[in-house]
Amino acid sequence: NQYQSANALIQGTAQLINFIGPLFAGLLIATISVSNSSDVPAGNLSIDTGISTEMRGIGFAFCIDALTFLISLMTLWRMKRQKPVDSKADARNVLMSIWQGMVYVWRDQIIRMVFLLLAALNFLVIGPIIVGIPVLVNYQLAENAAAYGIIMSGFGGGALLGVLAAGFLPPPPAKKLGSTLLLVISLMGLGMICLGWAQSIWLAAALTMLMGGSSGYVDIMMITWFQKRSPAELLGRMMSLVIFAS
Asked: Is pTM, for the whole model, over 0.85?
């Protein structure tokens, strides 16, 4: 089967955007802020609008992001509609399917532990990265939006490399899969510890790249493991629970 390669292809596309997006947005905000600040004294607000020069750049970046949703709107508009179904019966089926998936996860001790591990990783690592890096840039690195974009892009680039490694490299032997994943996960914790003392943009970006690479590799290996272990009739429900844990 080709679960591992398919997962790498899907996740790799997402991580490619995570690599390009923050870098582009950070540089865009910094460029607009610098160009607007040339006519405004440092630390002052724009005379005509009362908006700081950096906030102008952020607003422009949000406008571009909002316009990209038009692509989603057009693709959804072109989807073919199915015949109407009984909404009450459909709702009951969905709830029953979710319940069956949760029962299966709870009864399988190994799946239950891996499921909790996946949730813990996202809660203890991904969450603090998303919230903590803006604080780190603002108070410790004393830089602008470009620095934030570079650091976050480092995480996305590392995740892309980790996904590609998981897709192209042969998987670890079944007996060593658990120890291999725990070793890779430990790199994420090590990177987070060092990130707290980072005084350089490029050092912080290198650390987030290490963490992103570990995260990308572990995600692919765990998702593939879930798919191989789950019964075919429960595969959709299992993947929905994995996404919920993340």
From this structure: no
